Amino acid sequence: QVQLVESGGGLVQPGGSLRLSCAAFGFASGYYAIGWFRQAPGKEREVVSCISSADGTTYYADSVKGRFTIFSVHANNTKYLEMSSLKPEDTAVYYCAAPCYRKPPIWWGQGTQVTVSS
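-> structure tokens emitted (118 positions)
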């Protein structure tokens, strides 16, 4: 059974950093492209970042380029989203999903809340 489990959300001040984790169960995390999506209150879910399973190519939404980094640790079958210089507009529920280049992805995690506020 395929399962994605996120962790690492929380409350952070503007300018702060957080690292989100997405642990994959039921398949090797390097087999499917896993990515991060987010949904803010009253807004549609949007893709944040995606990493290719084939060659490690990464995609970032314009709104997070230069601030967020997606990377893999294959040894523990986990993908990470390192978020820095966080802004209040980054506040949302963050979901990992796979395959992230598929519209829509097939598998979704349960989501983790990120709140950026002073």
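The first strand starts at residue 3 and ends at 7.
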